[in-house]
Amino acid sequence: QSVLTQPPSVSAAPGQKVTISCSGSRSNIGNNFVSWYQQLPGTAPKLLIYENNKRPSGIPDRFSGSKSGASATLGITGLQTGDEADYYCACATWNSSLSSGVFGGGTKLTVL
Amino acid sequence: QVTLRESGPALVKPTQTLTLTCTFSGFSLSTTGMCVSWIRQPPGKALEWLARIDWDDDKYYSTSLKPRLTISKDTSKNQVVLTMTNMDPVDTATYYCARYITTRPSFDFWGQGALVTVSS
Questions:
Q1: What is the mean predicted confidence (pLDDT) over A29-44?
Q2: What is the nearest CA distance from B98 to chain A, expressed in angstroms?
């Protein structure tokens, strides 16, 4: 059971916009950066967003991230069938030699 | 460019110890801020972070799995090794290693993953 809560699934039509939420607490999201990952079927996860809202080189601006309080949101506009994937949020606290609940439970995006 | 590759046994028996090696290139684990983490994913399930080792040899472990995990590095070989003791069928998963940079907190590069099945 992850400490970061994501909806199990979301869906939208091609060309539409979708948002995926990631809910945590003050101790994790509230005080740390959030990153987002896309996992296409049968492949390794890929970094989409880091430091809440920054995109690595090569990630299109259709993908965006935001954070407010203890929650974060991934937005995808202009949906394409190739966006069908699992999406994970991540937020780690490294206050000691232990950590837990780094990743959310994942959200499966279906492009109808 | 940055690459990571996991290697290790595809099949282990219950109670055995799993040893996985992450061999990387394109960065040095002696550079300040560089870290390597291990993350696993059981079939059809979510990602689970396991452990992290830093450039200065600081180590971090999953609270729930710490008693069973050991992470180490060989900077000269560009390798990070994870051992997990007392393997159980529930540990069947794809194991990934990924780079983590403390100054840009995220797992920015991932290996392709190594499927480990625990079965007698």
A1: 95
A2: 10
DSSP state of A51: T
> Under a CB-based contact definition with an 8 Å cutoff, are residues A71 and A23 in contact?
yes
CA A23 from centre of chain: 11
Work out the average pLDDT over B23-51. Answer: 96
Integer CA distances (angstroms), B11 to A63, B18, B53, B93, in order: 38, 9, 25, 11
Give A30 to chain B, closest Cα distance, Å. Answer: 15
Burial call B18-48: b when 16+ CB within 10 Å, e when fewer: bebbbbbeebebeeeebbbbbbbbeeeebbb
Which H or E run includes B84? strand B79-84
Q: Which helix (H) or strand (E) holds A31?
A: none
Nearest beta carbon to residue B110 from set A32, A45, A94: A45
